[in-house]
């Protein structure tokens, strides 16, 4: 345990605090953390890595501390202007001891303070000046405070605490002919007011001598903001005029509005030029009313000050940020679109050094921090003005999202960054203290990963080397920005599609932080068919809902999953004002590559078909340092995603375990589930799966079958598992529309070919969720039912689509194992369920409805898959009273080879032969 007396000098004021470090083996970092924790409000803006901590001790007793009497007797030693530059060792005349030069010191009476070594991220304090040391912040504090001879009772270890970046000597800047404001507090306050007034003039505009206009309805006088008398500081009229002209020509975004005849009855209110589904109070309340648990309710319970929203594209990260802003004042930055963010990036890129050297790199990183401060201060200036009149956090949020406000903020930023760093710091830190309850949100923050990818030094001071004009251990602007924001003690939320599964470790290590300081949030909604159907009931006009209830039930099944799918459908529905047409167009855009699909940049970013197309060839490597996987091994996205498809179709229908060291989230093809023991992947998204299958079908009709059968013949696969996989393969061929090819039409009667049956739009797995046969009945009732159906257990058929009814038999009885054929008795027991009158016989009410539907003229194509083979003496005979068509498929049939492909059938025959040989040998 170490007790330290700290003297904090800020804005020409002296503050003191006594800090106790309770760690068993305390380090310099532990001391910094103890100081920041003890004086959180006053020191929250300081960057711990760049603090200067100066050890102060008596010249006659260098290993001890200062007494309480000394602290009272020498208060001037803790004010900035008390320090001279009388060195013990030679140094340049224009440098002070605070410039970090070894040997810089102060001799004041019988007190001595001295900097032995100082550089950003590397602070040294020593108790003996005879042996200067260069210590790392992780080293034991005993290097600085001699614990073997602790101060006597009434004495204190003493350090002076200062921000390393503040320039404490006279300024020689051409654009500022005053000393830094920290020396002259009266002048500084006046200069700060002038600066804020100038910046505020960009927000308050005069048009042709008429009344002043603001971008929002709030008091626009800075005297109301500062509770001070008005300041007669001329505004920059030229810039204001240019901006006003720009704003007048900027069109506000058009979106859903409350139209009289609209098929939607959503009340969309425009707020300050901003309107969207995300800002609708009605949508927010309706979703809660139908029982949807809002992610924001869980997010508001998080206690950490740094939150990472982790989820795939469309899962609701941005929506959750919008909802969060209903409860908290937020500075919301869209990193890909906001004008002030783009202006900041341009400024930073313009100041990137062509020649990398320690000095140039230091200047560049100081400027980058200044740019980030200007970005935040610009928003805080606007927020400060807003809160003088209005305490509505969500209306403030909408103000930020206005295009007009965005232009204003960009110009305020561009003006503020022209000021010297000292002035920017005054503005920034004053706002930081006043608006400490405000959150900073960086949405689409993955953009910061793609710019300035290797222009910043490592957070570790030992890795600052430069060779061949390149940083030896570079990090991205994303890492630099996260480190800065978090160390400023700002409450922040980071979200973006490319945030990684192991993000909590990646961000913290890159920013030099401890992982426990961050909270990873991944509890986003998966909209169920029931959720979507209930919302349609609320949001559609009653006549439109009632006349399309069956279609809406189908749409609800198809759009289940991430919320964006449903919201994009609402966009399409608002535009087309026709449910059937909107569904057809949206389905085509999302799951196919048909020529009728209108390509656009937005479509490329949202279409699952495009996701598959661009990501199917990706290789995913485990995270560096992974303990559970071979870090050098790469995994094909195609393989993993197809296995996930199989898991959904013939697993539990909910989730599949996925090693958290694999960065699958970046593919945008899976939803994340935080499970005990690791991450799981939510996969029952028909839109994603159908898009993937359609993409693979477009490449090669047998490619997916050959992939799915890769381990089909393994001795480790049970007979039941083999049967499930065969059902999947058959389902894939139906989704491909096998009956539409010329070679397969030969096996079908003319009445079937004349129907020109289209490919199914998707499939519905009703094996565990349709016990009452609702979808089965709908399919019988509606000849154009668009989904391939997997009925519930004991229904009869294993697959149903249009006129096709399929039964699959692959397991063999005990008596027929040696021949790999199904026995005649087993065939007879199973074939009775082929007859339509025997469907759902275990549920008489459903069976009665089926028989009622069968009274209308209808014919079926019954396909009986007897794989590996039918009993030689058994022949299936259809019901003589019906005009149905029957196809019995074995490995020897021509239908099998053209249906499954020659490769699959050949492998299956070889597998059967090997089993028979082994059985004969035994």
Automatic annotation (TrEMBL):
SUPFAM superfamilies hit by this protein: P-loop containing nucleoside triphosphate hydrolases
Crinkler effector protein N-terminal domain boundaries: 2-62
Keyword Secreted among UniProt keywords: yes
Matching InterPro entries: Crinkler_N, P-loop_NTPase
UniProt keyword annotations, A-Z: Secreted
Record-level GO cellular component terms: extracellular region; host cell
Pfam family, one: Crinkler
Location(s) in or outside the cell: Host cell; Secreted
Location, primary (coarse class): host cell
Record has Cell division as a keyword: no
Protein's name according to its UniProt entry: Crinkler effector protein N-terminal domain-containing protein
């Amino acid at each position: 345990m170490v007790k330290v007396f700290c003297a904090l000098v800020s804005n020409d004021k002296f503050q003191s605090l006594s800090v106790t470090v309770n760690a068993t083996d305390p380090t310099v970092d532990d001391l910094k953390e103890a100081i920041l924790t003890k004086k959180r409000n006053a020191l929250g803006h300081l960057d711990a890595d760049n603090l200067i901590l100066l050890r102060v001790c008596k010249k006659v007793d260098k290993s001890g501390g200062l007494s309480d009497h000394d602290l009272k007797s020498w208060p001037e030693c803790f004010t900035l202007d008390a320090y001279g530059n009388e060195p013990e060792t030679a140094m340049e005349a224009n440098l002070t001891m605070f410039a970090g030069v070894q040997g810089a010191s102060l001799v004041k009476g019988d007190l001595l303070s001295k900097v032995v070594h100082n550089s950003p991220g590397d602070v040294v304090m020593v108790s003996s000046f005879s042996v200067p040391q260069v210590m790392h912040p992780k080293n034991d504090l005993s290097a600085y405070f001699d614990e073997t001879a602790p101060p006597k009772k009434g004495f204190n270890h003493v350090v002076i605490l200062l921000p390393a970046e503040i320039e404490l000597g006279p300024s020689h800047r051409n654009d500022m002919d005053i000393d830094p404001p920290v020396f002259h507090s009266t002048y500084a306050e006046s200069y700060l007011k002038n600066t804020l007034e100038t910046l505020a003039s960009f927000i308050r505009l005069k048009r042709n001598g008429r009344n002043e206009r603001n971008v929002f309805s709030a008091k626009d006088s800075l005297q109301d903001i500062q509770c001070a008398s008005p300041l007669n500081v001329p505004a920059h009229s030229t810039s204001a005029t240019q901006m006003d002209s720009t704003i007048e020509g900027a069109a506000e975004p058009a979106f859903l509005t409350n139209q009289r005849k609209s098929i939607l009855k959503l009340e969309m209110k425009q707020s300050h030029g901003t309107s969207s589904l995300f800002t609708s109070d009605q949508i927010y309340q309706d979703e809660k009313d139908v029982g949807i648990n809002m992610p924001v309710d869980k997010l508001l319970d998080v206690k950490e000050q740094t939150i990472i929203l982790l989820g795939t594209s469309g899962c609701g990260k941005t929506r959750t940020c919008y909802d969060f802003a209903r409860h908290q004042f937020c500075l919301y930055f869209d990193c890909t679109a906001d004008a002030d963010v783009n202006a900041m990036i341009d400024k930073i890129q313009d100041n990137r050094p062509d020649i990398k050297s320690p000095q140039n790199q230091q200047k560049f990183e100081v400027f980058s921090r200044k740019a980030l401060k200007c970005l935040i201060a610009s928003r805080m200036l606007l927020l400060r003005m807003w809160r003088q009149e209005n305490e509505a956090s969500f209306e403030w949020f909408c103000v930020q999202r206005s295009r007009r406000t965005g232009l204003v903020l960009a110009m305020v930023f561009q003006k503020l960054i022209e000021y010297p760093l000292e002035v920017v710091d005054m503005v920034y830190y004053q706002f930081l203290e006043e608006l400490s309850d405000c959150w900073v949100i960086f949405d689409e923050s993955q953009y910061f990963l793609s710019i300035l990818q290797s222009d910043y030094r490592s957070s570790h001071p030992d890795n600052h080397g430069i060779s061949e004009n390149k940083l030896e251990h570079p990090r991205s602007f994303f890492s630099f920005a996260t480190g800065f924001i978090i160390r400023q003690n700002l409450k922040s939320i980071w979200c973006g599609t490319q945030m990684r599964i192991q993000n909590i470790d990646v961000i913290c290590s890159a920013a030099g932080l401890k992982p426990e300081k961050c909270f990873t949030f991944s509890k986003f909604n998966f909209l169920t068919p029931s959720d979507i159907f209930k919302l349609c009931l609320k949001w559609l006009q009653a006549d439109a809902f009632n006349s399309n209830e069956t279609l809406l039930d189908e749409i609800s099944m198809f759009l289940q999953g991430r919320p964006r799918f449903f919201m994009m459908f609402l966009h399409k529905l608002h535009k087309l004002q026709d449910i059937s047409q909107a569904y057809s167009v949206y389905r085509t855009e999302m799951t196919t590559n048909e020529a009728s699909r209108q390509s656009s940049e937005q479509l490329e970013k949202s279409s699952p078909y495009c996701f598959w197309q661009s990501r199917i060839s990706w290789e995913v490597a485990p995270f560096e340092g992974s303990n559970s996987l071979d870090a050098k091994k790469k995994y094909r996205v195609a393989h993993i995603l197809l296995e996930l498809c199989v898991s959904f179709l013939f697993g539990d229908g909910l989730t599949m375990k996925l090693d958290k060291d694999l960065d699958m989230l970046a593919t945008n093809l899976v939803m994340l589930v935080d499970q005990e023991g690791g991450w799981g992947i939510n996969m029952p998204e028909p839109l994603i799966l159908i898009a993937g299958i359609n993409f693979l079908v477009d490449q090669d009709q047998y490619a997916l079958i050959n992939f799915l059968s890769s381990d089909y013949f393994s001795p480790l696969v049970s007979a039941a598992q083999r049967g499930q996989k065969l059902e999947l393969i058959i389902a894939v061929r139906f989704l491909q529309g096998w009956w539409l090819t010329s070679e397969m039409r030969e096996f079908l009667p003319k009445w079937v070919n004349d129907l020109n049956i289209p490919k199914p739009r998707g499939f519905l797995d009703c094996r565990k969720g349709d016990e009452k046969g609702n979808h089965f009945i709908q399919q019988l009732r509606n000849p154009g039912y668009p989904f391939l159906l997997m009925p519930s257990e004991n229904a009869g058929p294993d697959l149903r689509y249009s006129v096709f009814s399929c039964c699959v038999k692959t397991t063999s009885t005990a008596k027929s194992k040696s021949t790999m054929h199904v026995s005649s008795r087993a065939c007879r027991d199973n074939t009775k369920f082929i007859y339509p009158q025997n469907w759902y016989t275990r549920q008489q009410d459903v069976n009665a409805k089926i028989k009622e539907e069968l009274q209308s003229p209808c014919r079926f194509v019954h396909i009986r898959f007897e794989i590996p083979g039918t009993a030689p003496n058994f022949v299936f005979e259809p019901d003589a009273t019906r005009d149905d068509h029957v196809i019995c498929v074995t490995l020897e049939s021509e239908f099998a080879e053209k249906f499954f492909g020659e490769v699959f059938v050949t492998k299956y025959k070889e597998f059967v032969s090997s089993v028979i040989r082994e059985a004969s040998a035994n």
